[in-house]
Amino acid sequence: MRTFARLLPVALALSGCTKAPAPCVPAPVPPPRELTILYTSDEHGWLAPKDDRYAHLGGATQLLANLLDREGHCPGALDRDGLSVHPRRDNCPRTTLLLSGGDNFTGPSISTHLRGAPVADTMRVLGYEASALGNHELDFGREALLRNRERSGVRYLAANMVRDDGTPNDLAEPYAMFERNGVRLGVIGIATEKTLEVGMKSRFVGLHFESVEATLDKTVPRVWAEGADAVIVIAHECHDVLAPLIERHPEWKLSFVGTGHCHRSAALKAGDTLLLAPAWSLSHYGRIRLRVHPERPLRERAELVDFQLVDVNTPIDKPLRSGDKAFDAALAGWQARVDGELGEVIGHAAGFSASSDTMPRWVLGSWLEAFPEADLALTTRGALRQEMPPGPVTLGTVLSILPFDNELVIAKLPKSEVAALVAKPKSLVAGVRCDQGTCTKSDGSPLPEVVRLVTTDFLYDGGDGYALERKDAPPSMTRVNWRAPVIAWTRRAGSTKDTPLETKLAGLRR
Fold this sequence. Notes:
By secondary structure, this protein is α/β, with parallel strands linked by helices. The chain is about 25% helix and about 30% strand. The chain has two domains: about 35-330, Purple Acid Phosphatase, chain A, domain 2; about 345-505, 5'-Nucleotidase, C-terminal domain (5'-nucleotidase,  domain 2). A hairpin with a 2-residue loop joins strand 10 and strand 11 (about 185-190).
């Protein structure tokens, strides 16, 4: 009996009961908590909407309206140059987290001409918290990214970007922890392994990009070890590249993987993990709702409630949706500055798409006009970033179509290798014609044994896998920006509304 009396208090304490006479009441189970992840990718500076026959598509002001009205999102604040937009409210429920898959800046002239500053301010106003590091994030140089990072307040994430000397880099963190509605969320960032091939390699000197799979295999456990309730990945990589490796690793227990880079929308499952890719240029965003059960073991707490790819558009016969009039005025101010600095009209166009034969004929023909010693001009479809709108052609129009800071080089190539170069799926060429592997100049005359090629330093340095530096090192550096011959020829062409640019192309080599 004495032994029982001694053990009774211990047994009661272990059961959660402190008094023997009172019934034992189990500790209450904490209620589940929900949070919403909002996700865009490949914004590429598209602050203004694109209009078609039916709708105003995308744009920052419509996205802000959606986030406020449909998602209950807490926006950020901008207090610069006397403008204050959406200061955070003390009573705003912090249940959403806005993230990006990268490639925020390079695109239309409103962003490219001003080195990304309007996009950085926009990301602060919209309340972005983190972004994967895209292959175009350093297009304006490292210092510009650091300035835009400070301006936006966005944390850039790239767990697989590593300095060659092993020291920490100052551009991006491997992951970040965020708390929303009492949920601790781990967010891991991933850059494409091909960043040095599809970005401007000279901007990434001293850096390399490791295997995504190996990186996640060592990083995911670190994030779980920090006490995350759920772990997600934001990746500047195509969904079809990531899906197989995510499926191979169910032990990672990822709740969501946001993808991008390929400019294609997609939603699919890899095992139990959702992969979601919104369309580029702010025309869509992803909404992902997670529910977390705090009483469950780590790695087992989070469940996917639902998800949706949400269109950002307004019917063309209705006014644009506005999230904030002051923000609309800020966008108009940035556009007015660009129009003032790049508004010179150099021609007129009826309008043609980036995928048409007219676009490369205009660009590449202008290069060959400027460098008549060249036999061949080369670029890629991905270099031509938007359509030629109908109406006046301005300096800003050219900058928006050709936004990257490329320079032209003239390299030499053996005649025997021209056919393979022309046959590459991404190649756009002028100056030669190939038929069943036999190539001649576009006028039918034979090619010289050593062909002179005018192209961009990006492609020469290995961009898009061309690696032309292996054929001819060093090339002839022209020190000419790739837009300059296009602008000069367009001015000389003298196109008007009645005789648009398209009618002037006949004299260019094709």
